[in-house]
Amino acid sequence: MGGQFSPATASRHRRQAATKHGASRRDGGYRRTPRRRPAPALLTEFYLWTSFGGVLGGIFAGLLAPYLFNRTYEYPILVVAALLALPGALNGQLRQFLWRIWPAFVVIAAALMQPLLDVHVDERAALPLQLGLVLLVAWMLLQRRDPARLAALAVCGLVITGVWQPGLNVIETTRSFFGVHRVADINGGTHRLLYHGTTIHGAQHVRDADGTPVAGRPEPLTYYYFGGPISDAVAAARAAQSGLKSVAAVGLGAGSLACHRHDGENWTFFEIDPEVVRLARDPAMFSFLSSCAPAAPIVLGDARLTLAGSNHQQFDLIVLDAFSSDAIPTHLLTREALRGYLARLSPHGTIVMHISNRHMELAKVVAAIGSAEGLVTFVKADGKASQFVTDFHAAALVAVLARNEADLGPLPATEGWRKTDAGTVVAWTDDYSDIIGAIVRKKLAK
Questions:
Q1: What whole-number distance in Å separates Cα of residue 55 and Cα of residue 65?
Q2: Which single residue of 151, 288, 352, 433 has CA 20 to 30 Å from 323?
Q3: pLDDT tens-place string over residues 402-438
Q4: With contact defined as beta carbons under 8 Å apart, do 379 and 401 qualify?
Q5: For the chain, what is the domain count?
Q6: d(CA 225, CA 398)
Q7: Pair (152, 261) in one structural domain
Q8: What one-character DSSP code corresponds to residue 157?
């Protein structure tokens, strides 16, 4: 056969040539990337500058962005910048590049026009918007070999999901070191909600269906509605002690708990986030505090420290409402923290913990730390609140701890409350916590 290829060999060479030719046409800048790598002698400088860029990014995201942005814009900016850093994204002339990213200009222009036109997307637009996003994702898959067009479509998706939220009329968005808070009207403007990320931290009925403002003392909603587990626990503590003199509430939210206060009771709120305090104190946002506890002091700072340093004050009731977000402050749920609360609790006082959480089972954790400190624990899972979209009542999981069962008053005999033990769960301490175990218990319980 001297010098000739067999049919199989010829076929293989044709496939290799076609593959090489196709890769050359498709990849463009990808083929040039290896040639741009730093020389071995410059590797130290290369990694130094890489680290320096990471430091600058950390400073921007951690220190500057919370003051420059009212939302976490740095993350979508980083996603788009990463797409534009792909090889080939900036190839060609400026006119060609602008043509590749034209969808981003259209969507950004529409978003900028929305406040001027005062356009709000109601609930009926939810399905069309979702279908549009599905089509957008399909378009992104088709354009995945063009980094510039893919980045532009990513901008479209991020802007659409951030600006147009059916049924949600955002009144104010603010950001602090602790996260992003939004005040928004929903249900046609009848109710106002406070969001921290995706977690609701309070709701108020602000207008009737005809648009008439609601007057008078506001009624607590969400987890705090009258007749819910938190309401049960406050009422039981009041009955057991023939009235409450001093109450400490850790976690302010919209201020809903203030409207469980009775005349003559001294309530003190402990809150770590100054932006939450500002929103709750503003009657134009929420009127729980201004209507129900206008003179209640608010202590700013980490509640474990500020509560411990509250001038040796004794509280008849301590309400801990800090565990409903996705990331919980575990340092408030340890044996050492509980000892600090007990040091500020009156001899027959009770501790109420609101432990509703989407991802973690915390009832056994509370029972474990309570048992370790010689306390009894009763827990109730709300089974009545199931129509949030109509009555804005949210189902709460609440634990109550006391030095003995008699201090709980009528609570042990109240429907739904049950004495709880820790089982095999070990009490959390400042040196030990088992977040994974809490997540697994929650998932297995579903």
A1: 14
A2: 288
A3: 999 999 999 999 999 999 999 899 999 999 999 999 9
A4: no
A5: 2
A6: 13
A7: no
A8: H
Cα-Cα-Cα-Cα torsion 126, 392, 183, 175, nearest 10 degrees, comes to -100
Q: Which of 122, 127, 150, 147 is nearest to 138 (CA)?
A: 150
Nearest to 279 by CA among 179, 151, 393: 179
- Are 386 and 395 in contact by the 8 Å Cβ rule? The answer is yes
Same domain (yes/no): 279, 411: yes
313: its two tokens: 């004050």
Task: Kindly report the three-state secondary structure assignment for every residue of 109-130.
Answer: HHHHHHHHHCCCCCHHHHHHHH
Identify the segments of the chain with pLDDT beneath 70.
1-34, 115-122, 446
Segment 55-87, tens digit of pLDDT? 998 898 888 888 888 888 888 888 999 999 888
CB 334 within 8 A of CB 369: yes
CATH number of the domain encompassing residue 326: 3.40.50.150
* In a domain? residue 8: no
Alpha helices (runs of H) in 241-391, residue ranges in sequence order? 274-281, 288-292, 303-308, 335-343, 363-372, 388-391
* Residue 242 and residue 144 in one domain: no
Helix (H) or strand (E) holding 196: strand 191-196
| 143 neighbors 101 (Cβ within 8 angstroms) | no
Reading the block at residue 109, the tokens are 């222009």
pLDDT of 24 reads: 45
The crossing angle, in degrees rounded to 10, of helices 147-163 and 126-142 is: 170
Contact 358, 193 (CB under 8 A): no
Q: In terms of residue numbers, what domain contains 258?
A: 229-445
Please check whether residue 12 lies inside any domain of the structure.
Answer: no
Distance from C-alpha of 367 to C-alpha of 84, rounded to nearest angstrom: 51
